[in-house]
Amino acid sequence: MPEWPEMENYRRLLGGLIVGKRITGTEVTREKSINLAPERFDKLLVGQSIRRVDRRAKHLLFELESGETLVLHLMLGGIICYGTLQEKPDRTVQVQISFGDRNLYLIGLRLGYLHVIPPEHLAETFAKLGPDPFDPRLTQGVFDELLAQRRGTLKSNLVDQSFLAGIGNCYSDEICFDAALLPERKPASLSREETVRLFHSMRRVLDEATSFGGYMELPLYPGDRLTGGFDSRCRVYDREGESCVRCGTAIERRGVSSKKSFCCPGCQG
């Protein structure tokens, strides 16, 4: 599932591709992916231009000049591609938004969605989300206070969107590895020095992953050499049996809080 770095990478790249461009058409092949009838969806979008592309947690927000916002959540298996009809990947497209001869292809939205949200309901849409990992109000002290209130494991808390917004299975493991902490550790067991490590690892890992384009497998557009660059840089996620880059111990896959998790038993404690 796309997480914070993947969606932030999309946000940055799409800003230079579609902001200011006028929507010339839409095509919906899966009505459950949108929250309006396709005819109404098309009528609302065609003729509008994208004022800005924003992100909240794992959501992309496309602000229309009408004031309404398209909220995209890719969920499991969702990807985005942008290009001409000839450049469209050989994948099933659930929603297509056209900008002249270029199209934004939303692929794999079997669980995901693209909803039109009026401005008065936008805050309500994200009301249950926790703070963004890079929110300037999320200081070390605030992070420590929030973490001290949590039960469960580090794994279950890092992926809990009401605690921190945007982290999922991959980066929760990568953050724990960077902080040299096992994902099954309980927040109450952490020392002050360990919570400091965790806080800085969270931001360091997400920043590095974003700078390398996240781990998505398909480029956003032809010639995109950034998207997916972090996949080969994952230290533990999906690396079961490989040697740890830090100590050489074999990476293990474990079940933590009913989720698959990868860690190094040699240097994570």
What does this structure look like?
This protein is of the alpha+beta class. The protein has 2 domains: 4-125, N-terminal domain of MutM-like DNA repair proteins (Alpha-Beta Barrel), CATH 3.20.190; 140-263, Helicase, Ruva Protein, domain 3 (Orthogonal Bundle). 26% of the residues lie in helices and 20% in strands. The protein is built from 7 helices and 10 strands. It has a 4-stranded antiparallel sheet, covered by helices on one side. Strand 9 (252-256) and strand 10 form a beta hairpin. Helix 1 (4-18) packs parallel to helix 7 (192-211). The model has no long low-confidence stretch (mean pLDDT 97).
Give short descriptive properties of this protein.
269 residues; alpha+beta; N-terminal domain of MutM-like DNA repair proteins; Helicase, Ruva Protein, domain 3; 4-stranded antiparallel β-sheet; 7 helices
| CATH architectural label of the largest domain | Orthogonal Bundle
Envelope shape: globular
Query: What does the largest sheet look like?
Result: 4 strands, antiparallel
Q: Tell me the number of helical segments per DSSP (H or I, 4 or more residues long).
A: 7
- Averaged pLDDT, please? 97
CA-atom Rg in angstroms: 20 Å
Report the helical percentage: 25-40%
Number of domains: 2
